[in-house]
Design brief:
It is a single chain. By secondary structure, the chain is mostly beta strands. It has one domain: Immunoglobulin-like. It is built from 1 helix and 8 strands, in the order E-H-E-E-E-E-E-E-E. Helix content is 13%, strand content 39%. The protein is flat, with a radius of gyration of 21 Å. The strands form 2 sheets. It has a 4-stranded antiparallel β-sheet, with no helix packed on it.
Length: 142
């Protein structure tokens, strides 16, 4: 199954140990502001859906490398409204990045992505097993 990737651990020296709680807190805050996602599996493919309201296709990057699927981009705040006083804004803006670990049977060469109504849908095809039957190895005399 597709899994969310954790942040890579840092060095294990004394200073890293002292700053680890601060770094972990920062990672949790960043995770809180990441777009919501879900992952599922069908017979022929894995599907990852990410909510990206207000983000256009040209602001999103989808990459696959070393069985990791990375979705990144930026939701830009561009508004100029004259005559209005804003008391609050609950919309978030800024850069985002989500990383998903793909299973061993995922075909990294066969990935498609569609974007409609603020929902990014990524499908990663499953590879069929190369040899369903065990391969017999011939033994030679030396």
């Amino acid at each position: 199954m597709v899994e969310k990737s954790e942040m890579t651990p840092g060095p294990n020296d004394l200073w890293s140990q002292l700053y680890r709680p601060i770094r972990q807190f920062g990672e949790r805050v960043a995770e809180f502001f990441q777009p919501s996602s879900d992952a599922s599996s069908a017979e022929e493919y894995y599907e990852i859906n990410i909510e990206l309201p207000g983000v256009s296709e040209d602001e999103i990057t989808v990459e696959v490398h070393d069985r990791r699927l990375t979705v990144s981009g930026e939701k830009k705040a561009a508004r100029e409204e004259k005559g209005k006083n804003f008391y609050f804004s609950e919309r978030s803006y800024g850069m985002f990045r989500r990383v998903f670990q793909l299973p061993a049977d995922a075909d990294a060469e066969n990935v498609s992505a569609t974007h409609k109504d603020g929902l990014l849908c990524i499908k990663v095809a499953k590879q069929s097993p190369d040899s369903p039957q065990p391969k017999r190895i011939q033994i030679t005399r030396t």
